[in-house]
Amino acid sequence: ASALSRALCRVNRESMPGRSQRFLIIHNTVDTGMQYISLMNCVFSCQKLGIPVDVVSFQESTYLAQAAHLTKGASLFLKSGKSLYKSLCSGFLADGSLRSIVR
Questions:
Q1: Do 94 and 102 contact (CB within 8 A), yes or no?
Q2: Which of 15, 20, 28, 73 is deepest in the core (most CB within 10 A)?
Q3: pLDDT tens digits, the chain, 103 residues: what are they?
Q4: Is residue 35 within 8 Å of residue 63, measured between CB atoms?
């Protein structure tokens, strides 16, 4: 949640008109309840700003899956890191116009 908050501050500070933003979260830890409120506050800010949050997770994460869903981002669960590069290239490098096809 703190990294997402810092990224939001940076986007807010350095935003340029006509330029789209999105966040990619690579997650490899178990969800903790202490992070939920701060994470969802960031997610609601992303939702309001129209910034999609994409998630690649190696552990089941309902919080981040919900974040991707609420912001119209993509969520992907991987069982191992062997397919990470292929997944990033095929699923998350797509332009905004191709996102609906890739999801």
A1: yes
A2: 73
A3: 889 999 999 988 887 777 788 899 999 888 888 889 999 999 999 999 999 999 999 988 899 999 999 999 888 888 877 878 887 777 777 666 666 665 5
A4: yes
